[in-house]
Write a sequence for this structure.
């Protein structure tokens, strides 16, 4: 049986998926603010975050602790070329990556949720905090993805 945090994680990912799928391909190509990433690039950043957090979630659940680097988000987004990917492909990648994460969280033993994780030079936090913060991070960027398009008068 999945823990409460696992059930909440999966439920919140389902809501985020609905929000993401409501975004049109036309809007996906537009920056969320003047000089900012396009919505495609934001989804790419979320994919990179998922890849990095997958390592953290698994290592902490197996080893009882995790220490790892931060990542250079602009360089990762550029290296993957997310702005050039088709929107349906990015949506599919997001869905698959998050199904993997949900399956990992489903299997984390309750006692491992207190495992300490250190990301870069930050103070250690619990695995539970990383999981909850991951959803908050997704929600933060979903607000950018669903923001009204920048108009010429806003530029």
């Amino acid at each position: 049986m999945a823990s409460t945090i696992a059930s909440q994680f999966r439920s919140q990912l389902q809501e985020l998926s609905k929000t993401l799928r409501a975004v049109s391909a036309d809007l996906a190509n537009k920056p969320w603010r003047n000089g900012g990433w396009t919505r495609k690039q934001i989804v790419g950043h979320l994919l990179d975050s998922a890849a990095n957090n997958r390592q953290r979630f698994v290592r902490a659940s197996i080893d009882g602790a995790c220490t790892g680097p931060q990542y250079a988000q602009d360089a990762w987004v550029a290296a993957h070329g997310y702005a050039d990917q088709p929107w349906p492909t990015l949506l599919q990648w997001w869905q698959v990556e998050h199904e993997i994460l949900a399956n990992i969280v489903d299997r984390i033993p309750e006692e491992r949720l207190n495992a300490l994780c250190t990301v870069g030079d930050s103070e250690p936090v619990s695995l539970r905090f990383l999981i909850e913060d991951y959803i908050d991070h997704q929600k933060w960027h979903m607000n950018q993805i669903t923001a009204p398009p920048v108009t010429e008068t806003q530029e």
Q: What stands out?
A: Residues 4-148 form a domain with the Four Helix Bundle (Hemerythrin (Met), subunit A) fold (CATH 1.20.120.450). The chain has one domain: 4-148. The two ends are 51 Å apart (CA to CA).
